[in-house]
């Protein structure tokens, strides 16, 4: 299912090293380009020259990332309490951890399922410096006697407030349309009946993992721009699926890799951490992520030269309420971003759900931070795997589940 | 001259051929942008084209027959601070009032093209679009 690994990164013997690039950066000599600038440079000067002259390319994405959340350590009350149930501004936070540790997920809603205000919105409020009402209950123990608390917390009162997202920055994503006769409300936005529109959700040519298709430089330990502040890639993201069909240049044609990222909420800005509501679907967190890609050699330069016309995805029919939905059309990101695509002879207007303008802004900010020395490129301590495939959830017996 | 008005009328007025009269008697071009009418009356958003004097006469006629006339300045507002320029709204707006600038990839909102249909309100993930009527 997966491609042999060794073809990648072994070609160019006069490759630059991370140390070399980092030294240039700290001396103020590194050549840093945003993904957009780099693609134009390659177009006019060629891949060879780009590989020689450019050290780092900055990539970025800003979109709804449901598998996001944050964990907190609240500090101890007096008398102390072992929290069993907790609510932050009315939204349940998971507390099946140590006494005053909580995890708040982006898609969590209150008991009334009010989709205008979920976990994502509470996280945005905290990033904005607001205080959040904390209510908690516990059963009381000899060491933790307190059974109830009603108070306020903010980034200023907590010991740790850390964004911890188990799946972000999808390497490519499916596009959506609706062939039925009624409007559908989905995590892909409002889908008008009879193929009234199509939505897609990826920054395309400037998106991090599409510029490093075989994860040569984005790996565990990569320092990233996260929500306006800084964070790290800590693991492969959930649903990591590198074995999908790829173009001859190696670009996945379907949703493939993802990353799990972590970073301090302190230092993030609400501009890049946004609570979102997808009507009748629920809430999600808009997260901005930026990743610097070192141009180690010509192969990396050619990977980062990829443009929207060479990146493909499929438009799926979301009116089928099945795990595998029928494909309506195969399209490139150049088609999608033109504003209209052809589906079965019909001209269908498109909506990107991922903000390309914010993604570009992230590539600019990251470039500036690298140039002024405030953001340091790191070498991954471990590569992301290439041998994962997707499993499904079936109703099965105990023995079957162990096979 | 093009002007947008919000009309509020009672059941009697809704039986009168209002738009026909505006066109025939006052020489105005009337474009109905939005209408909600039921047995207790209704609301209409219209765009009137014609010279200043005829427009004024047309409005006076409407007021005389008991129709509430309010000039329509701003029906839908975008909170620019909240908008992430995601583009979720552009493919569902029926009038191209919302569109993506091909250069900057930012989403532009052209209030003149907006007919206050409200379709974009619940399609905007950060809820940047607000309907005022
Ligand atoms: S209210 Fe209707 S016409 Fe106005 S911007 Fe929204 S979708 Fe477009
Ligand atoms: S859907 Fe909302 S946030 Fe997205 S571009 Fe339109 S107005 Fe802006």
The topology string of helices and strands of chain A comes to HEHHEEEEEHEEEEEEEEEEEEHEEHEEHH
Secondary structure tally: strands of chain A: 22
Radius of gyration of chain B: 17 Å
Number of extended strands of chain B: 8
Could you say which overall geometry of chain A the principal axes of the C-alpha atoms support?
globular
Given the helix and strand composition of chain B, which structural class is it?
A: alpha+beta
Q: Quick one: CATH superfamily of the largest domain in chain B?
A: ACT domain
**What is the CATH C-level name of the largest domain in chain B?**
Alpha Beta
| Distinct compounds present | iron/sulfur cluster
- How much of the sequence lies in strands of chain B comes to 25-35%
Instruction: Determine Rg of chain A (CA atoms, Å).
Output: 22 Å
Termini gap of chain A: 21 Å
SS class of chain A: alpha+beta
The percent of residues in helical segments of chain B reads 10-25%
- The average pLDDT value of chain B, as a whole number, equals 87
The overall pLDDT of chain A, averaged over residues, is: 95
**Low-confidence regions of chain A:** 1-7
Binned, the helix content of chain A reads 10-25%
Number of domains of chain A: 2
């Amino acid at each position: 299912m997966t491609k042999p690994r060794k073809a990648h990164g072994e070609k160019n013997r006069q490759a630059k090293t991370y140390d070399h690039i980092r030294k240039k950066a700290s001396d103020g000599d590194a050549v840093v380009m945003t993904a957009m600038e780099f693609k134009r440079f390659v177009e006019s000067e060629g891949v060879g020259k780009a590989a020689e002259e450019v050290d780092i390319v900055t990539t970025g994405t800003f979109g709804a990332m449901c598998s996001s959340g944050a964990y907190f350590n609240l500090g101890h009350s007096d008398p102390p309490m072992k929290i069993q149930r907790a609510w932050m501004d009315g939204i349940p936070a998971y507390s099946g951890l140590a006494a005053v540790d909580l995890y708040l997920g982006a898609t969590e809603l209150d008991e009334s399922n009010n989709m205008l205000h979920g976990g994502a919105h509470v996280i945005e409020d905290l990033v904005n410096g607001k205080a959040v009402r904390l209510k908690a209950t516990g059963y009381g123990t000899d060491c933790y006697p307190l059974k109830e608390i009603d108070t306020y917390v903010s980034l200023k009162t907590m010991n740790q407030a850390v964004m911890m997202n188990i799946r972000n920055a999808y390497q490519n994503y499916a596009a959506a349309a609706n062939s039925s006769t009624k409007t559908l409300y989905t995590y892909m936005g409002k889908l008008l009946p009879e193929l009234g529109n199509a939505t897609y959700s990826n920054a395309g040519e400037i998106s991090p993992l599409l510029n490093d298709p075989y994860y040569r430089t984005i790996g565990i330990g990569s320092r990233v721009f996260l929500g306006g502040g800084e964070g790290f890639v800590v693991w492969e993201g959930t649903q990591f699926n590198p074995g999908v069909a790829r173009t001859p240049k190696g670009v996945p044609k379907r949703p493939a890799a993802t990353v799990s990222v972590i970073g301090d909420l302190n230092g993030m800005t609400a501009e890049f951490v946004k609570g979102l509501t997808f009507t009748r679907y629920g809430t999600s967190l808009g997260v901005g992520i930026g990743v610097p890609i070192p141009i180690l050699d010509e192969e990396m330069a050619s990977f980062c030269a990829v443009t929207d016309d060479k990146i493909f995805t499929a438009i799926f029919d979301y009116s089928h309420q099945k795990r595998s939905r029928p494909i309506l059309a195969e399209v490139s990101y150049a088609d999608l971003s033109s504003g209209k695509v052809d589906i079965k002879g019909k001209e269908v207007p498109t909506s990107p759900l991922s903000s390309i303008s914010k993604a570009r802004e992230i590539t600019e900010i990251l470039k500036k931070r690298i140039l002024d020395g405030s953001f340091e490129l790191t070498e991954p301590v471990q590569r992301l795997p290439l041998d994962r495939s997707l499993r499904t959830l079936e109703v099965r017996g105990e023995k079957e589940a162990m096979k | 001259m093009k002007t947008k008005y919000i009309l509020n009328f009672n059941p009697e007025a809704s039986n009168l051929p209002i738009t026909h009269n505006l066109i025939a008697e006052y020489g105005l071009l009337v474009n109905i942008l939005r209408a909600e009418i039921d047995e207790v009356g209704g609301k209409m958003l219209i765009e009137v084209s014609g010279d200043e004097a005829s427009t004024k006469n047309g409005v006076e006629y409407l007021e005389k027959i008991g129709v509430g006339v309010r000039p329509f300045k701003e029906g839908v507002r975008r909170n620019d601070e909240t908008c992430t320029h995601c583009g979720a709204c552009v493919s569902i707006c029926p009038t191209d009032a919302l569109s993506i600038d091909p250069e900057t990839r930012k989403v532009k909102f052209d209030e003149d093209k907006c007919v206050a249909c409200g379709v974009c309100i619940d399609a905007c993930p950060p809820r940047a679009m607000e309907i005022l009527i």
